[in-house]
């Protein structure tokens, strides 16, 4: 499966394919994973999700910006998204990609932007997750989180990726902090080399289960973010066996992926968060979703040529 993922992500970076897909916009079936291009689209879908008993995690799409001006624009977009939460009930959680606000350019300037975002989010009662991107950005993302936590911005959280060989050490480092930061656990979505990442599905699932266990014992708030039914069942069973309250461990899934499972989990009394991306810079996000499942690619290709 990881060879399929590497291939799709590599082909997606090929200029003519990217330009063609971007020109066609969110038609082609890619729109299934994205609320729309505008903030109003996102707020409308977020309300629908809340009526259906799930909470939205808004994500204004954008990543790996090329210059400081683009990072400034991204900060303004993120701040506008925070303001839109005034129309939505709690829990108010959103995601930001650190390279969207310039972490890949100048970490100091990115930290200043993240600090301003943290202040605006605190005023609006919004919790902000710093998503985890490809492995060259992990150190800087953890440093960013720790810097802002040290300043008292405890409403900021981040993500650990089970496929990374370094994750057990990162987990230990974060769980030693006081207070323990809120953490989301995922398998990991990027094409990573064997030198830094586990390469088989079995190894990644086993790591995910071990890390779920460590997080549950660790005392902080845990978001188990996967569509893998076995891992969801494992997390629920271990949480209940360890007597961890549901408020300390919920489930998060992606918009457009396994909606029936999302509905069932909410019906069964789970708190279910749905990662809800929106915006015009959808290409990188959508190609990662296509790389997760051959059937998604077939669906989109049918939209292209059908
Ligand atoms: C809330 C949330 C936040 C995330 N944040 C990050 C992040 O910050 N950094 C990061 O690297 N990754 C992130 N991810 C993505 C994650 O790393 C995985 O790439 C993604 O969740 C797919 O892995 P899986 O655990 O669902 O397992 P998989 O083994 O990929 O999937 C399990 C089953 O779910 C279904 N499924 C999975 N993906 C899809 C899909 N795209 N379309 C249709 N069906 C699918 C399939 O039926 C599959 O058999 C996030 C995921 C979620 C749910």
Briefly, what is this?
The chain has 306 residues and is α/β, with parallel strands linked by helices.
Chain-wise SSE layout:
Blueprint: H1 2-12, H2 15-24, H3 39-51, E1 55-60, H4 68-84, E2 93-96, H5 107-124, E3 127-130, H6 138-150, E4 156-161, H7 167-175, E5 183-186, H8 201-217, E6 222-225, H9 229-241, E7 249-254, H10 259-267, E8 272-278, H11 283-290, H12 294-305
Parallel strand pairs: 1-2, 1-8, 2-3, 3-4, 4-5, 5-6, 6-7, 7-8
Flavin-adenine dinucleotide binds at residues 131-132, 159, 161, 184, 186-190, 225-228, 252-254, 257-258, 275, 289, 292-293, 296.
The CATH architecture category equals: Alpha-Beta Barrel
Helix/strand class:
alpha/beta
Question: Under the CATH scheme, which class?
Answer: Alpha Beta
Domain count: the total is 1
Small ligands present: flavin-adenine dinucleotide
Stated plainly, the CATH topology is called TIM Barrel
Span between termini: 26 Å
Share of residues in helices: 40-55%
